[in-house]
Amino acid sequence: MTAITRTSRFARLRTLAVTGLATTGAAAAALTLMPSTAQAAEATQVQSSAVTASAQNNRSAQGKAGYANNLDGWIKQSLEIMRAKGIPGSYEGIKRNIMRESGGNPNAQNNWDINAKNGTPSKGLLQVIAPTFRAYHVPGTSQNITDPVANITAACNYAAHRYGSIDNVNSAY
Q: What pTM was estimated for this model as a whole?
């Protein structure tokens, strides 16, 4: 084998190895971090409509003295209810989970996972399915699963029973 052939062969192998690693790494990242094309398109629509949707809908936080009708206000109102009912959780833990689950859109609905395929899509800020919402609903909050305060409070009640607190949830639950 000549020196040129050997050099060219090593260059090809190096290129293939780097390309393979990059492709494998990108594929792994895509599988764990990226939704399908349809989900990505829907997520884009969901995020762009979040501000409009929250402004258009009347929510339980609206009209409550001291609470803004936005994500910050909904979390703070939920925390007050949770403290009164002995449900653990922090502002940071709730917000972290909301941003992962719905991006802050109270009308978010998952139409592609196993729950949706079985006819029970997860809904709202913390992506709760109807049976879980009913089982962990906190009296004094709306019966509407997409009501931000009711959704947060029910999800935190569920997380408290299952994981000790919403603060202990770091992935889909």
A: 0.65
